[in-house]
Amino acid sequence: KEGFGHWLEKIHKGARGNGISEANVRSVLNRFDDLVTRKGITYKRWDEGIKFHEGETIDLTTDFETLLQKAKDFEEKHGTDKGNGWLLRHPIK
Questions:
Q1: Which residue, of 17, 49, 59, 62, is most buried by count of CB atoms within 10 Å of its CB?
Q2: What is the DSSP letter of 2?
Q3: Each residue's pLDDT tens digit, 25-35
């Protein structure tokens, strides 16, 4: 296994010193793909048609601190995910 997913899983260590699970790696990569392809991120607990960052460009010039704040504001308005940030905040961080 190689690539960014492998790095996320094996190199990055959380606060408890354990790596990110394969399921969380897949989740982060899928949500990041939703952002960079401009599809936006949906969530089953949000109203139908609600998407975070749909149609907006994500690239190396993106201010990710501002995007993270937008995600927090969005969650405040529409509801946070039950996965403690794995839907919006962790993929942006």
A1: 62
A2: -
A3: 888 889 999 99
Q: Model confidence over 62-84: pLDDT tens digits?
A: 999 999 999 999 999 999 999 88
Q: Give the pLDDT score at 21.
A: 75
User: How far does Cα 33 stand from its chain's mean position?
Assistant: 9
Q: Tell me the two tokens of residue 41.
A: 């991120």
Task: Give the three-state DSSP class for 41.
Answer: strand
Query: CA–CA separation, 43 vs 18, rounded Å?
Result: 27
Rounded to two decimals, the pTM is 0.78
Structure token pair of residue 70: 């937008």
The residues, any chain, with a CB within 8 Å of residue 39's CB and separated by 6 or more, are: 51, 54
In a 10 Å sphere around its CB, with 0-12 CB exposed, 13-18 middle and 19+ buried, how is residue 26 labelled? middle
